[in-house]
């Protein structure tokens, strides 16, 4: 940066201008100047000093964001002997600023996670963090935040880490994964029904499921699973908490895609999701579309995960065809956005059955496809007062095009003549199929 290191007062003045100057030109000038500062070597020291001052949310956010950006893109600027001091400084900042603003905590958590992933000398970072903060209930929110973003950042494109380092990190995280889950369980026990904390716990657990490092046998007997399904079964669960729990269950189902090697956890998730049918009906009765969409996401992920099992042993064990019933219940919802969530599963099922080409198997699945087509026909009908031809480019037009594609992929199971035999159904589906591309 030309002119040497700027004073803290000047930096603070520029941050204030960025956020509060009524003149757009002043804002733009401040933005350009602060951008230059962030790219300079001075940014490390100035960010650290601004975080120490703790003057206001804006200056602390700018400093935390700068620190995160510098660690992500310019970590090579720092000599190795400064790494420990940077780590200790960041941990002090996040503890001191934990109550100032959640967005500042998130930026600092990302900075700490990105530092841990690049700092090869910081062995067992998860163990260090848990040992340092787990006994202090007021530190739990930011500790869980760091433990959430850590697995998420492993595959970040912003970080310049090689394949060997990434493998080393994943092995390290896998080693401490059960310790993290135990911490999250303790966290729920201590904070009880604190909604914000539960959301954080579910986000964190989902993050570790997504990385694919959790021990499935350990998770199968963990009470966090029970808490997840209890939250999803309750009518009074808030929208935000419901979404966090749904995301977590979907991540867990995705993580056990190889069902045969994760049998204990697969069974727990399978049984847990089947208990949500009543809760789905309650959400429909309350016209709570957000929850309805969440349940449909979960049911679809369940069917995707157990697709191979369902085709291999339909109606037996975890090939239980009640999973398809759940999707057909969702297909009956008046909003077409609900059934659309499940399209990829039905496409995959059709693909599997087409490849296997077993008449007996086709007979088992045919009634489900017939019912699906009947629901799709109903969804594709225009309102009686609709005038003219629907636009292909609006949401409903695009939905009809996707239905056309799906019909072409599964029609072999039913037979085209039988599909068009019912007049009500044939008119709707023929109209949709005609509007789609020819196969």
From TrEMBL:
Q: Which Gene3D superfamilies match?
A: Leucine-rich Repeat Variant (1.25.10.10)
Q: Which Pfam families did the record assign? A: IBN_N, TPR_TNPO3_IPO13_2nd, Xpo1
Identify the domain of life: Eukaryota
Q: Which residues form the Exportin-1/Importin-beta-like domain?
A: 102-248
Query: The Importin N-terminal domain covers which part of the protein?
Result: 32-94
Gene Ontology cellular-component annotations = cytoplasm
Output the InterPro entries linked to this UniProt entry: ARM-like (IPR011989), ARM-type_fold (IPR016024), Exportin-1/Importin-b-like (IPR013598), Importin-beta_N (IPR001494), Importin_beta-like_NTR (IPR051345), TPR_TNPO3_IPO13_2nd (IPR057941)
Q: Name one GO biological process term.
A: protein import into nucleus
Q: Which GO terms describe its molecular function?
A: small GTPase binding
Name the UniProt record assigns to this protein = Transportin 3
**Species in which this protein is naturally found:** Echeneis naucrates (Live sharksucker)
């Amino acid at each position: 940066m030309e002119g040497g290191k700027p004073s803290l007062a000047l930096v603070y003045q520029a941050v204030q201008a960025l956020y509060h100057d009524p003149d757009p030109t002043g804002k733009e000038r401040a933005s350009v100047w602060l951008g230059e500062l962030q790219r300079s070597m001075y940014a490390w020291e100035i960010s650290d000093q601004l975080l120490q001052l703790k003057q206001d949310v804006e200056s602390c956010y700018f400093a935390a964001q700068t620190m995160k950006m510098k660690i992500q893109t310019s970590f090579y600027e720092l000599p190795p002997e400064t790494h420990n001091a940077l780590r200790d400084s960041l941990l002090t900042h996040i503890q001191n600023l934990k109550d100032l603003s959640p967005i500042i905590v998130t930026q600092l958590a990302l900075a700490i996670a990105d530092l841990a992933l690049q700092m090869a000398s910081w062995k067992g970072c998860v163990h260090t963090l848990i040992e340092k903060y787990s006994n202090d209930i007021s530190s739990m929110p930011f500790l869980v935040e760091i433990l959430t973003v850590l697995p998420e950042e492993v595959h970040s494109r912003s970080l310049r880490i090689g394949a060997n380092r990434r493998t080393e990190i994943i092995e390290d995280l896998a080693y401490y994964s059960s310790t993290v889950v135990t911490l999250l369980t303790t966290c729920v026990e201590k904070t009880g029904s604190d909604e914000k904390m539960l959301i954080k716990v579910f986000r964190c657990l989902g993050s570790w499921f997504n990385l694919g490092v959790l021990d499935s046998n350990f998770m199968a007997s963990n009470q966090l699973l029970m808490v997840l399904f209890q939250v999803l079964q309750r009518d009074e669960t808030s929208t935000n908490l419901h979404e966090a729990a749904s995301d977590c269950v979907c991540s867990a189902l995705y993580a056990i895609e190889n069902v045969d090697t994760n049998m204990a956890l697969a069974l727990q998730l399978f049984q847990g999701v089947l208990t949500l049918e009543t809760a789905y009906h309650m959400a429909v009765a309350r016209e709570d579309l957000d929850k309805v969409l969440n349940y449909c996401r979960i049911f679809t992920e369940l069917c995707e995960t157990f697709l191979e099992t369902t085709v291999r042993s339909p109606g037996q064990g975890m090939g239980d065809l009640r999973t398809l019933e759940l999707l057909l219940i969702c297909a009956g919802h008046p909003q077409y956005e609900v059934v659309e969530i499940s399209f990829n599963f039905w496409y995959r099922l059709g693909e599997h059955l087409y490849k296997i080409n077993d008449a007996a198997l086709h007979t088992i699945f045919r009634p489900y496809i017939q019912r699906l087509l009947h629901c799709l026909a109903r969804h594709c009908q225009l309102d009686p007062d609709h005038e003219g031809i629907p636009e292909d480019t609006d949401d409903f037009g695009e939905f009809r095009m996707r239905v056309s594609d799906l019909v072409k992929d599964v029609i072999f199971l039913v037979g085209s003549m039988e599909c068009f035999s019912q007049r009500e159904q044939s008119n709707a589906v023929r109209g949709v199929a005609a509007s789609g591309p020819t196969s």
